[in-house]
Amino acid sequence: MKNAFNITVVTCLLFGMTLGCSGGRKPIKTDYVEGKVTYKGVSVDKASVSFSPVKADTGHSAYGRTDNSGTYKIQTFLGAPGRGTTPGEYIVTISKTEGVPTGRFSMDEDGNRIEVDEVRNLLPVVYNSAATTPLRATVTSGGPNKFDFDLVDEP
User: Fold this and answer.
1) Where residue 36 sits, what CATH number does that domain have?
2) Which of 39, 51, 113, 142 lies in disulfide reach of 90, CB 3.0 to 4.6 Å?
3) Model pTM?
């Protein structure tokens, strides 16, 4: 009797931990989203693309990265890789940065001397922030959901 009780308690704890570790969430149904990013007509590689719902609780934030041809596919944190996001209206941000050596040095946590880099934007900063980007996309159920963005200096 005592062993049966212990097995039941352990089973309940393991089941509870499994739900807790997965957040108790199931994968969501998403609609495929893709597109191409260009800057002044030239494909942009290695840019970060983010879709954020215009209204809170009306979609799932999603992200992607452009390949060598400037093409991206987005995914949510809860969806399958490259499978898009849920229908809704989204604010789109796009950024690409690089580290530029400054000639200044610092010490890392192990006491090693390292050069300090500054982050330089390779695209106009207006597209980096949800507060300033003019880019929008409306994802529809069943698509097609292809959103191409040609970035310019002054949108």
Assistant:
1) 2.60.40
2) 51
3) 0.74
User: 33 with 145: CB under 8 angstroms?
Assistant: yes
In-domain check, residue 21? no
Asked, for residue 53, whether it belongs to a domain, the answer is: yes
* Number of domains within the chain: 1
How many CA atoms within 13 Å lie on the side-chain side of 24? Answer: 4
Averaged pLDDT, 97-116: 90
Which among 35, 10, 6, 28 is positioned nearest to 151, based on CA atoms?
Answer: 35
Query: Which residues are registered as beta bridge partners of 138?
Result: 89
Categorize the per-residue pLDDT at 25 as very low, low, confident or very high, splitting at 50, 70 and 90: low
**Residues of the chain above pLDDT 70, percent:** 83
| Residue 2 domain-assigned (yes or no) | no
Q: Which residue segment(s) compose the domain that 132 sits in?
A: 26-151
Distance separating alpha carbons of residues 39 and 127, to the nearest angstrom: 11
Closest by CA to 25, choosing from 96, 78, 64, 71, is 78
